[in-house]
Amino acid sequence: MKSGVDNVLSIPTSLKGKFFKYWFKFLLPFHGLTDREMDIAAAFLLKRYELSKVISDVNILDSVLMSEDTKKSIRENCDVKHQHFQVIMSKLRKSKVIIDNKINPRFIPNVKEENGNFKLLLLFTFDDVESV
Known about the structure:
The protein is mostly helical. It is 46% helix and 3% strand. It has a two-stranded antiparallel sheet with strand order 1-2. α1 packs across α3, α3 (35-52) packs across α4 and α3 packs across α6 (82-94).
């Protein structure tokens, strides 16, 4: 088996820009959200990332993130009416992006601010290739 990196793709972005939206677009096969639903989910991840800078306790972080004040802020920043926001929140729960009033850890990227990069390793295992 050959080791090492086979392909590298660089995606210029910023954490406060479109990073979290790109993240959800990449994970589309796992959640099936629409663009607008991904906008809201990305806004939640950005807010969670910002809050994680000052709140180290994950339980408190999740509580603050899902507070009515934070939801209202996200709704206003994304210019979504209250009723439509409730429909989107329902879809985020149905698609398991939100479970038990928390962002599903599966959808939270492990962002570490080192060297200005976020690295993601994909490992495709082929079940239709014969062993050598």
